[in-house]
Amino acid sequence: MEDLKGMGYLPHQATPRPRPLKLAFIMLATASYCLAMMLYYLFWSSSHSHTGTTLPINAQAIVAQCRALHLIPGPPDNFHSRRESDRFVPGTKPTLIRNASIWTGLENGNEVVYGDIFLDGGLIKEVGSVDASKYADRELVVLDAEGAWVSPGIVDLHSHLGVDSAPALNGASDTNSLKGLVLPWLRSLDGLNTHDDAYRLTVSGGVTTANVLPGSADAIGGQAFVVKLRPTAERSTSAMLLEPPFSLNGTHVDANQRPRWRQMKHACGENPSRVYSGTRMDTQWAFRQAYNTARILKEKQDAYCEKALAGQWTGLGDFPEDLQWEALVDVLRGRVKVHNHCYEAVDFDGMVRLTNEFKFSIAAFHHAHEAYLVPELIKKTYGHPPAVAIFATSARYKREAFRGSEFAPRILADNGLDVVMKSDHPVLNSRHLVYEAQQAHYFGLPANLALASVTSTPARIMGQDHRIGRIIEGFDADVVVWDSHPLNLGAAPKQVFIDGIAQFEDPHVSTKPKSLQRVPTAPNWEKEIADAIKYEGLPPLEPKTTKGKAVVFRNVGSIYLKDSVGVKEVFVAESKGGIVVVEEGQITCSGSCPQALLRADAIHLDLEGGSISPGLTTYGSPLGLTHISGEPSTSDGPVFDPLNGPVPSIIDGTLIKAADGLVFTSRDAYLGYRSGVTSAVVAPMARGFLSGLSTAFSTGAAHKLVDGAILQEVAAVHVAVSMSSRVSVSTQIAALRQLLLGGGKGEVQTYFGDVADGKIPLVVNAESADVIASLITLKKEIEAASGKSVRLTIAGASEVHLLAKEIGEAGVGVIVQQRPFPAYWEAKRILPGPPLTASSAIAELVKYNVTVGIMVEEQDRVRNTRFDAAWAALESSGVVGKADALALASTNLEILLGVGERDDHLVATRGSAFEGKVVAIMSARSKSVHLV
Ligand SMILES: *[C@@H]1O[C@H](CO)[C@@H](O)[C@H](O)[C@H]1NC(C)=O
Ligand SMILES: *[C@@H]1O[C@H](CO)[C@@H](O)[C@H](O)[C@H]1NC(C)=O
Ligand SMILES: *[C@@H]1O[C@H](CO)[C@@H](O)[C@H](O)[C@H]1NC(C)=O
């Protein structure tokens, strides 16, 4: 029986992996201790018998210090017999979680225990079948999980939470020091802001522990610290630390005891060389110079200790020390987990050489977009192969990330390397770290490793796997009760325990379909995986047309189509699944179509119960205006902003058209297309207030002159009103008022006149509820003057839910991100959704009949639009249905952005319309079917 497996785990059984190491360590430590003691007593007696050798007064301390230099970090010997956690908060009641499906993290992540968990003293005390009568005299909190999944708390190996603050304010930006390329003496702890908005949000995603790293502006940015994310009674940064290294808090430690693990940030490649206007060569030299300094100091210490331990005290002097270099010396002594931000083969190669030259190991290569292409190189790192800590699908944002692949987690695992998914918070909102694991699983990483990649593996890589990352008796009581299997899209915690403390007093839970309690099945990507390797990360992505041929889809489960107002489900198969025939890009038969199965002239595709649904639209990223957002020479570039400086007279009075700057065939556009995002609306890249005229185009087109490449040359007029601008909000609103009242020149005057007349929508990027309120007032003012209805769309709109009713009444449309984040003060008041709030912003707006679209800010995430739409439905507790979810990213966007020339693409997915694999894309307008 499976639930018996969880019974009676003894700590030493529970940590099979470190065991041989631990034994070896204990033997070594004991041996060196005995040796040292022998030597010590030898010298002691000899110093008394020989004149000429003077034993220093602190000889005993020196001998202890010298002996301690060779101790490898780890928990104290008696750690696993602890009855209470050092982080236990007195007064915390014991908790019994009943009837859970417990993913323990044991057996390489394959063990599931169906049973109970008992939390007491800040520890997991029992896993399996718990006899509650034993605790009759205790005041137990009992939580009936009703079969729900329980996992260990999520562990983030790479976060800047608390140092790169949310909301971003000048007074709380402590990620990067610019005082030099090599700063191993800095400590992220010194910048850890205790008031960051992201702590609670991140915990609401099930994340319980984070490794807070300094940034990547420096080659050696400083020391990182592992913290637990719950609030503490002390309200101090130090109280958040998990097993801080000795010396940090001034405690004088027993030199016979192992030290605690330390963590340090290294970075190579673009970031340090860019910040210091240097090159990769300069960065690498900075590393070598630093390590050479540390090596010289270490050798002095070792020589000193050799003499001290041999009793040669004469003229020995003081132990060689240097406060600035001690941490790097500790790296050379194997006592620091080095976290190395490093992307490309050229940089791995440099680091691998460095580790072999100076003989130190690296805990993990982070970001590491090319690691999957050079696994054998990674394995040449001194000591042991580093883990590889990566994003799932975030890539191509700069040159060194260009060859990043969604299949990297799977390929790395196939090569026997440890895979960790990380947030780099706030680069990715760490609240959704488990989403990274979900995507890694979707793209081929086995479920056991996907869950391990955010729990047990990062815990081991940071040297904390004796207490976190798995559900084992004696481990810290950090557990998450989920509303669905955590590898399912949209999975949210029903409750999160840290150190046995429930983090939410009254958590909101959205009802999920029963099917989401199962481990999701991932599509088959074997061909794509092989191609990623074959083409060194740049497999050809151009769509292949099958013009002229009919396509017969079998086992079609459902069909969704656009109508005049939205998306409707027009067909749901009964048991067996329907047939759909597509000729010249158009559906010519759907339902039973018995003759179709016999057609020899057609291409036959089995959708395995999947769907045919409208192609989606994307808005919000520069997709269509750039290939690599971090490389200006691959982009259309920003427009002049009249509120931010002079506009050259030659274009004064002109509204810039995005259509003039379109770039086609970017990898993100093609990946979007292949994921069923068949069209995009993009506005000129703005530096501030004025953007220009957006255009709607097809993401799969080869260039602008191809038939159907441009859906609509001009879609809407775009401006932005922001509190982060260099001019005041009131100035920006005044400028907009002037333009709408006819104050502009030439084309500017014409287009804003059309806005005032309701002929073309005005899209305003705005986050703050106060700015949005001013825009609603302005809309009314203009309408009173013109007598026409102004079509206003607010995009961004992080705080819009505060005005849902007023927005609904004013007939204003809204485009929001599906997952809000308080990145700036003006976006602080988000509606985060379950478990923090019952409702999400999207659900709230839908209740007031507001037309809502979803936007994607980063173009590499355009491909995940289907996931965003599905997620919006999943967290809405039924307010947003499946067809509505598709409308959020298709018809609603077209309406809100003024796209009358609708995208007519249809997308066939093997598996669900949201999480299946796109296999064909059809367009009646271009009479084509593209097979993916
Ligand atoms: C556990 O929960 C499941 C799902 O709600 C239920 O079917 C089962 O009967 C429960 N078992 C116990 C022992 O309560
Ligand atoms: C300092 O840290 C060590 C190691 O975690 C701990 O044993 C000790 O109690 C701490 N001392 C103080 C004063 O907090
Ligand atoms: C939304 O629209 C529906 C249908 O037209 C209507 O019954 C309902 O009252 C509207 N709700 C609000 C809040 O305006």
UniProtKB/TrEMBL annotation:
What UniProt keywords are attached to this protein's entry? Membrane, Transmembrane, Transmembrane helix
TM region(s), chain numbering: 21-44
Q: Which GO terms describe its molecular function?
A: allantoinase activity
Q: Name one GO biological process term.
A: purine nucleobase catabolic process
**Membrane is among the record's keywords:** yes
Q: Which Gene3D superfamilies match?
A: Metal-dependent hydrolases
- Classification via PANTHER family: ALLANTOINASE, AMIDOHYDROLASE 3 DOMAIN-CONTAINING PROTEIN
- Its name, as the record gives it, is Carbohydrate esterase family 9 protein
**Source species of the chain:** Roridomyces roridus
Taxonomically, what lineage is the organism?
Eukaryota, Fungi, Dikarya, Basidiomycota, Agaricomycotina
